Amino acid sequence: MSAREAVAREEPGDPEGPGEPGRYVPSARRIARERFHRTRARRATAIAAVSSLVTAVVLYFVITRSPGWPRTRDTFFSAHYAREALPKVLDGLWLNVRLLVICGACVLALGLLLAVARTLRGPVFFPLRALATAYTDFFRGLPLIICLLLVVFGVPALRLQGVTSNPVLLGGAALTLTYSAYVAEVFRAGIESVHPSQRAAARSLGLSAGRTLRYVVLPQAVRRVVPPLLNDLVSLQKDTGLVSIAGAVDAVYAAQIITGKSFNYTPYVVAGLIFVALTIPMTRFTDWITARTDRRRAQGGIV
Amino acid sequence: MTEPEPVRTAEPDRAGASDRTSASHRTGTSDRTSTSGRTSTSDRTSTSDRTDGEAGRTSETSEPVLRLEAVRKSFGRSVVLRDVDLEVPSHTVTALIGASGSGKSTLLRCANLLEEIDDGAIFLDGEEITDPRVDPDAVRRRIGVVFQAYNLFPHMTVEQNITLAPRRVHGVSREAARERARELLERLGLADKAGEYPDRLSGGQQQRVAIVRALAARPRLLLLDEITAALDPELVGEVLGVVRDLKEDGMTMVLATHEMGFAREVADQVCFLDGGVVLERGTPQEIFGAPRQERTRRFLRRIVAAGRL
Ligand SMILES: Nc1ncnc2c1ncn2[C@@H]1O[C@H](COP(=O)(O)OP(=O)(O)O)[C@@H](O)[C@H]1O
Ligand SMILES: [Mg+2]
């Protein structure tokens, strides 16, 4: 025992020894190799810059020389209307952000429940399984816009006691209905991607089916589907703009109000660009997570 | 590695067998209760793992830990196990040998109720576990399994892998489960790996962690399915060394293996499976020294030719 401890204490030692730091001198070969890498990197940057510039110039001339450009510029890219629209659109955007956060949370929770319901085995769960399957089939196929129209205008028409007719809430509910169907399928794919041997290992330890799902299958499944999930959330983020058709004053509706008065489409362009700007961080985050997941998997692949 | 520490008063194996009466091993549950009852004292200090099975090494009640009776198992139309009989007495090691596809893994999976058998019966400590009214989870809690492909949980650290079942199934407190994990890891030379994720370990280390995980809940019986088959040759030794130590400690084991030299060394009983039938069974001397069946002889010749004996 003491022998092993001694070994363990020695193991994480500095390979060069503590007494002689910085003795390693890079060889001429290494220096030459690194110089070559630097030169090549510089050249690649230069080529990319020139090629981007050329593309931009060509695009600029093609667009500005087109016969309809002066009118298009005034209708879609008017600085005056952009200035007028920006604060109002930003005001409306706050609603989109809130919708994203709340619907996003509901979608993830409902999607996970549906996915789990679909993987349950045993005859007792048959109705649950069938319901979950029917739900995902239906709402995945139903166009979002139709789902929105039906919920937003159909539900209030029923005049049910105690049911809201608030367009924001109903719009959010419609988004949740459709997106949870998508997300459920993503989760289910994740659950099914966990190798059966993991389940066998958990069951052989005496874990029940439920505990196996909770401690072994779901954690691995969720980790695997984070990139596609974020993708769906990016998609949800921009689709929050659709609640404007119900009359909720979000960024799109704010733009629409100005456009309706002025017949100038600049506010739409402003709103569109803001949505793009909002999704870019999310998209980059998704890319980063995906890359990290791939790296981790690659490391695991050595064994 | 298994050197007893000074704290331990007496060699519990052979000496202690008499005072812990053989009654306790008849049912796995009561055995376990007696075990947990004295956890705080001797278990903590004991470097060995033989806490469960102690009773009965010398007892002659001779109820085998595992007994298979005319077990039949088929997948679709292919019959994989045919009238298999097997008895695994307490504190013995049974080696299952046979060509790939002869049904070794299936037999072990049936014994752990990971597969449902078509006919026959399987008994654990005299209790029929293939009775449909038996709770399979309760049975699996009493059996440890180590797979060829380790099957560690990649999203958990080594320690979390090991403490999962004790904490979530056996209701052991977090501290106690941790202590047990550390103690076993220490014993298998993995003390510094508790916080690592499995993908950072070598194959041999992963397999030893899998063994620790199977041992953590103090199983009555350990099933080992070709646990060295996925390992590089130089890593095989470290894993077989662990099995050897477990045998020293009196653990009851059934192992499917292609390491004939090892089977010869540790097994008390060797079973040659061929096409789902136990073609020959006996002591290692009988099977390896004087096989009665022509097919056994042919199999062993092939193994010798492959340099595995
Ligand atoms: N889940 C399964 N479905 C169908 N056939 C299987 C299954 N598992 C094993 N088998 C078949 O059973 C036979 C025995 O397999 P196995 O027990 O894995 O053999 P061994 O472990 O001795 O190599 C093989 O022919 C294999 O193809
Ligand atoms: Mg096998």
Give an account of the 3D structure.
The complex is a heterodimer of chains A (303) and B (309). Chain A has helices spanning 2-10, 28-64, 69-76, 79-119, 126-141, 144-157, 167-193, 196-204, 209-239, 251-262, 266-300. Chain A has 303 residues and is mainly alpha-helical. In chain B, the strands form two sheets. In chain B, strands 6-7-8-3-9-10 form a six-stranded mixed sheet, with helices on both faces. In chain B, strand 7, helix 9 (233-248) and strand 8 (253-256) form a beta-alpha-beta unit. In chain B, 45% of the residues are buried. Chains A and B meet through helix 8 and helix 9 of A and helix 5, strand 6, helix 6 and helix 8 of B. Residues 104-105, 225-226 of chain B line the site of magnesium ion.
Backbone shape of chain B: globular
Could you tell me which chain pair has the largest interface and how many residues each side has?
A: A-B, 25 and 36 residues
Helix-strand pattern of chain A: HHHHHHHHHHH
Helix content of chain A: over 70%
Q: What is the percentage of strand-forming residues of chain A?
A: under 5%
What's the overall average pLDDT of chain A, rounded?
A: 87
Task: Report how far the terminal alpha carbons of chain A are from each other.
Answer: 29 Å
Q: Please describe the biggest sheet of chain B, giving its number of strands, its sense, and whether it closes into a barrel.
A: 6 strands, mixed
Bound molecules: adenosine-5'-diphosphate, magnesium ion
Q: Strand pairing plus helix content of chain A: what structural class?
A: mainly alpha
| Coarse structural class of chain B | alpha/beta
The count of helical stretches of chain B stands at 12
What is the approximate shape of chain A?
flat
Segments of chain B where pLDDT lies below 50 for 5+ residues? 1-60
Q: Report helical residue fraction of chain B.
A: 25-40%
Radius of gyration of chain B: 19 Å
Distance between the termini of chain B: 27 Å
